[in-house]
Amino acid sequence: MTRRVSILGATGSIGQNTIDLIARDPQGYQVEVLTGGHNIAQLAVDARRLGARLAVTAHDDKLGALRDALAGSGIEAAAGETALIEAAARPVDWVMSAIVGAAGLAPGLKALEHGATLALANKESMVCAGALVSATAKAHGGRVLPVDSEHSAVFQALIGEDIEAVERVIITASGGAFRDWPLERLREATPEQAATHPNWDMGQRITIDSASMFNKALEVVETKEFFGLSPDKIEVLVHPESLVHALVGFCDGGLMAHVGPADMRHAIGFALHYPERGAVPVERLDLAQIATLSFRAPDETRWPALRLAREVMETGGLSGAAFNAAKERSLDRFIARDIGFTEMAEVVEEVLTRLSGQPGLIDAAMTLDNVARVDHLAREEADRVIRDRSKR
Ligand code: NAD
Ligand code: MG
């Protein structure tokens, strides 16, 4: 049976891996929508290759370029935020949510409102508005499947299990680019150095977030929201080889580990074929060859983001939205070389302190409008914190 699918963020790292799998089975899928950003050439090539019905760029000023690139193909072109959200509402069976950042939330919710299965790579959706995402899926008979490798691993380990029997969930972290750097050098780390990942080939932003552990901090919150676990059951373990993606510990002392190559096509393929298992062309691990796997406890002095994630889980409400937005803005400013690598966590912490002091903000109801409001204020506050610091 042909399945109708849409890919939001098709031109990115997860989007391209999703296309790789779908393109291998042209009879299996009818592609409805592909969305992208600045890379119009890639978007148009893929839309033509996959026979998509509609291609959307997030940028209004790129509509002409997209129309030109699709000329003669019969593929519709559209641009801008509203067009993107409308595109996500097109009726399909399965939607890949692979836009980076909080911008992925509204289109993902729209897809869920139309009953689609949402394959969620956009972890920011869960961090900013986990309860809203889950409630929307429930209300419209849709379902959310994790694509983040750790969460896919936990999901797989939980099949057939009772969540009440889960004692702990351990998600692993490679430690990123600066795992073994002396602490005093971190202050001087450049965006280029931070954007080099030892094991995974990912987008620039998530790669830098891996070096700062903000990625893992987001994933800890994502774990809580996705599986409804209490924060004290969630642990992070540094695992430099990135082959064990997560472990689930049960009340009888058993630990189920998910082991696989560092290739996102496994988790994407799992979500694509679910509830069945379909063949996915990833490398098969030769454990005798690999011989050893190593693990160590994370050091919160090196990675303060992990401590901040705990505080966010304790506070709850809209603090995840504030945390993510402050992180996104600090990352923008680090990439622009306005602040240093270690300052990102300091700025985020200060933003959280300032916003939690504003009555009725973080504990407001979780609606899309309130999430957007907190997101906006947190970005502004991050800029203000950075300005205040530069005056000192
Ligand atoms: P990427 O930067 O490679 O791609 C991002 C995609 O989103 C591109 O198509 C881009 O055009 C689009 N985009 C960017 N800003 C946008 C905006 N404001 N509005 C609309 N579209 C926009 O990112 P990625 O590495 O593929 O990551 C995508 C998501 O998946 C992120 O949430 C990331 O945390 C998550 N994720 C990625 C990986 C990975 O291996 N890359 C692994 C786990 C989770
Ligand atoms: Mg991950």
TrEMBL record:
Alphabetical list of SUPFAM superfamilies matching this protein: 1-deoxy-D-xylulose-5-phosphate reductoisomerase, C-terminal domain, Glyceraldehyde-3-phosphate dehydrogenase-like, C-terminal domain, NAD(P)-binding Rossmann-fold domains
1-deoxy-D-xylulose 5-phosphate reductoisomerase N-terminal domain ranges (all copies): 5-130
EC number(s) reported in the record: 1.1.1.267
Binding residues annotated for Mn(2+), in chain numbering: D148, E150, E219
Reaction equations catalysed: 2-C-methyl-D-erythritol 4-phosphate + NADP(+) = 1-deoxy-D-xylulose 5-phosphate + NADPH + H(+)
Keyword Cell cycle among UniProt keywords: no
Binding annotation for 1-deoxy-D-xylulose 5-phosphate: K123, S149, E150, S174, H197, S210, N215, K216, E219
Pfam short name (any one): DXP_redisom_C
Known cofactor(s): Mg(2+); Mn(2+)
Assigned keywords, A-Z: Isoprene biosynthesis, Magnesium, Manganese, Metal-binding, NADP, Oxidoreductase
Gene Ontology process terms (BP): isopentenyl diphosphate biosynthetic process, methylerythritol 4-phosphate pathway involved in terpenoid biosynthetic process
Coiled-coil portions: none
Ligand binding (NADPH): T11, G12, S13, I14, G37, N39, N122, E124, G203
Start and end residues of each DXP reductoisomerase C-terminal domain: 260-380
MF-aspect GO terms: 1-deoxy-D-xylulose-5-phosphate reductoisomerase activity; manganese ion binding; NADPH binding
Chain ranges of the 1-deoxy-D-xylulose 5-phosphate reductoisomerase C-terminal domain: 144-227
Pathway stated in the Swiss-Prot or TrEMBL entry: Isoprenoid biosynthesis; isopentenyl diphosphate biosynthesis via DXP pathway; isopentenyl diphosphate from 1-deoxy-D-xylulose 5-phosphate: step 1/6
NCBIfam families per UniProt: Dxr
UniProt xrefs under PANTHER family: 1-DEOXY-D-XYLULOSE 5-PHOSPHATE REDUCTOISOMERASE, 1-DEOXY-D-XYLULOSE 5-PHOSPHATE REDUCTOISOMERASE, CHLOROPLASTIC
Similarity annotation: Belongs to the DXR family.
Biological role stated in the UniProt entry: Catalyzes the NADPH-dependent rearrangement and reduction of 1-deoxy-D-xylulose-5-phosphate (DXP) to 2-C-methyl-D-erythritol 4-phosphate (MEP).
Protein name listed in UniProt: 1-deoxy-D-xylulose 5-phosphate reductoisomerase
Organism of derivation: Marinovum algicola
Gene: dxr
